[in-house]
Amino acid sequence: MATPDDTSTRTSTDPSSDAAPTRSTGRGGSTALSRSDARGVFGDRLFGGLAMAAGIVILAILAFVVLFLTLNSGPAVVDDEGGLMIGEFVDYAWPLMVGTLIASVIALLLATPVAVGVALFISHYAPPRLSKPIGYVIDLLAAIPSVVYGAWGMSFLAPGLVPGYEWLHETLGFIPLFAGDPSQTGRTILTAGVVLSVMVLPIITSVCREIFVQTPKLHEEAALALGATRWEMISMTVFPFARAGIISGVMLGLGRALGETMAVTLVLSPGLLTASLISSGNSTIPAEIALGYPEAPPGSERQAQLIAIGLVLFVITLLVNMAARWIVSRHKDFSGAN
Q1: Less Cβ around it within 10 Å: N or C end of the chain?
Q2: How far is CA 60 from the centre of its chain?
Q3: What is the C-alpha separation between 192 and 313, in angstroms, rounded?
Q4: How far is CA 313 from the centre of its chain?
Q5: Which residue has the higher pLDDT, 25 or 35?
Q6: Looking at the DSSP assignment, which residues form a beta bridge with residue 84?
Q7: Can you tell me whether residue 66 is helix, strand or coil?
Q8: How far is residue 48 from each of residues 5, 43, 57, 60, 224, measured CA to CA in Å?
Q9: Positions of the region Disordered (predicted)?
Q10: For 173-236, where are the alpha helices, taking DSSP H only?
Q11: What's the rounded mean pLDDT across residues 171-194?
């Protein structure tokens, strides 16, 4: 016969008892927990303050850049008597804007298909022992200085493209893009676009590759289970998922092409604006600034012109990024870029 003491002992030691174990903490334990909570709250507040300060610093720097460009570009559009010279400035800046956009568009048209194809090969076709080295090589291309690309384009690529320009002129000379006398040095806006395409290729490839590998495996396996080929699976699952990411990569490459200076400066032979891609002439805003700013007297109208076209390039780049964000936001619900 069990005694009350035995029953109480069995109840307190029985692991299957319904009573939940409790733990009492003394005054010292409560103090330790409160100190830990206080440190956590302080760390969160400190990190949040540092993050906010970093954001404010970036915005302040951007505001100072805009303020500097705006104030110092005044003499380019306003004369000493207060009259406007907008027409003269437009006549000066318009060919440079067109040349910048032409070179950037050529670079994107050449680089985007190749970059997407390389990214697909690395992410879905190549075996791991081959995809990793190719990925490393693509990443290394982005680390090559732009002046090296410019020297390569000026000394090797431009002379090598001269026979191709002559063939384009003889075969497709009726098209305005290939009319005019082909350059005998190869230093044309088309050569600059080819060099820029090589420079933006690793940027677009890296972004697309990271987006492609994030495609849900269940979507890919479901498409293959329904009898789709690998290409059909990619077109039905990978491309829709990565649409916004591809656009983001292309816009990043466009930003690099718009602002590239040294490579274009070395490759181009500046001249008057021409519709022909294979004739000497055309220039870009960064190349014009790089060539003219060191020789412009401080405070002169020439320096103000160069600063003003820098402001124009800043506005173009800002509009391109805003358009890219708008395009990406339209597909943010089904995208690997967010």
Answers
A1: N
A2: 22
A3: 18
A4: 16
A5: 35
A6: 78
A7: helix
A8: 58, 8, 14, 18, 46
A9: 1-34
A10: 189-212, 217-225, 230-233
A11: 88
Helix (H, G, I), strand (E, B) or coil at 78: strand
pTM: 0.79
- Long-range contacts: 174-182, Cβ < 8 Å, 24+? 176/275, 176/276, 177/275, 177/276, 177/277, 178/276, 178/277, 178/278, 179/275, 179/276, 180/274, 180/275, 180/276, 180/278, 180/279, 181/279, 182/278, 182/279
- Tokens standing for residue 144: 């090559």
The residue assigned the tokens 């604006």 is 273
Closest listed residue to residue 181, CA positions, set 281, 261, 33, 63: 281
Q: Which of 252, 268, 132, 129 is nearest to 201 (CA)?
A: 252
Residue that the structure tokens 């891609």 belong to:
277
189-233 pLDDT per residue, tens: 999 999 999 999 999 998 899 889 888 888 888 888 888 888 889
CA atoms within 13 A on the CB side of 110: 19
* Closest among 186, 301, 312, 201 to 253, alpha carbons compared: 201
Task: Give the tokens for residue 273.
Answer: 């604006």
Report the distance separating Cα 81 and Cα 92, nearest Å. 21
Structure tokens at 99: 């040349």
Question: Can you read off the two tokens belonging to residue 77?
Answer: 């559009």
The C-alpha atoms of residue 181 and residue 168 are separated, in whole angstroms, by 11
Distance (Å, whole) CA 77 – CA 59: 27
Beta pairing partners, 78: 84
Structural domains in the chain, CATH included, are 90-334 (1.10.3720.10)
pLDDT tens digit string along 96-142? 898 899 999 999 999 999 999 999 999 888 888 888 888 888 888 88
**pLDDT per residue over 232-290, tens digit each?**
899 889 988 888 888 888 988 888 888 888 888 888 877 777 888 888 888 888 888 88
Closest CA to 192 of 137, 116, 253, 270: 270
Is 147 within 8 Å of 245 (Cβ atoms)? no
